[in-house]
Amino acid sequence: MTTVAAELEFKTGDKVVYPAHGVGTVAAVESQEVAGYQLEVYVVTFDHEKMTLRVPTKKAKTAGLRHLAPAAVMSQALVTLKGRARVKRTMWSRRAQEYEAKINSGDLVSIAEVVRDLHRAENQPEQSYSERQLYESALDRMAREVAAIEKIDRDAAVALLNKSLIKAA
């Protein structure tokens, strides 16, 4: 490879977050030829989705590829979970779109807002199928990042998040 590693933002083995897919690992930095152009790409693997993604190094920032959230953002997300649910009285389809956009933003605090707003305690009415799907998606995305940050497995991260949610209820 011709690139100097110092100018690359991510190194092989780094845990990174890609907004639409969550936490992955930089498996390699490769040089590929695409449409006659030499292109340097980060090869990011997502074990939970059994998927590999190639992100051009020059477009990584605009694509939203980022390092795991720092401790301050992590604690802010946990505080957000403990807050009161803010459910707008708009049509479900519009709220669902907003929730989906927050989940795919890759922002840990926005994802925490979705988890908080869609969480149902034992004594609350059942969720609809689509609410449950969005809740599970947001919880999974958040749990995977928390697990990577805290160096614990996903289930332990879900337990940690649920503890924060139950205290809030």
Features:
Methane Monooxygenase Hydroxylase, Chain G, domain 1; 169 residues; alpha+beta; five-stranded antiparallel beta sheet; elongated; 2 domains; 21% strand; single chain; Thrombin, subunit H; 46% helix
Descriptive notes:
By secondary structure, the chain is α+β, with helices and mostly antiparallel strands. The chain has 2 domains: 5-67, Thrombin, subunit H (Beta Barrel); 71-168, CarD-like, C-terminal domain (Methane Monooxygenase Hydroxylase, Chain G, domain 1), CATH 1.20.58.1290. It contains 6 helices and 5 strands, in the order E-E-E-E-H-E-H-H-H-H-H. A 5-stranded antiparallel beta sheet has the order 4-3-2-1-5. The N and C termini lie far apart (53 Å). It comes from Asticcacaulis currens. It holds the Pfam family CarD_TRCF_RID. This is CarD family transcriptional regulator.
* Strand line-up of the largest beta sheet: 4-3-2-1-5
Low-pLDDT runs: 1-6
Largest sheet: 5 strands, antiparallel
Using only C-alpha atoms, the radius of gyration works out to 18 Å
The end-to-end span amounts to: 53 Å
Helix content: 40-55%
Structural class by sheet pairing and helices: alpha+beta
Top-tier CATH class of the largest domain? Mainly Alpha
Architecture of the largest domain, CATH level 2?
A: Up-down Bundle
Give the count of helical stretches: 6
How many β-strand runs?
Answer: 5
Quick one: CATH superfamily of the largest domain? CarD-like, C-terminal domain
Shape: elongated
**CATH topology term of the largest domain:** Methane Monooxygenase Hydroxylase, Chain G, domain 1
Mean pLDDT: 88
The share of residues in extended strands comes to 15-25%
Number of domains: 2
Order of helices and strands: EEEEHEHHHHH
Protein name: CarD family transcriptional regulator
Domain CarD-like/TRCF RNAP-interacting: 9-119
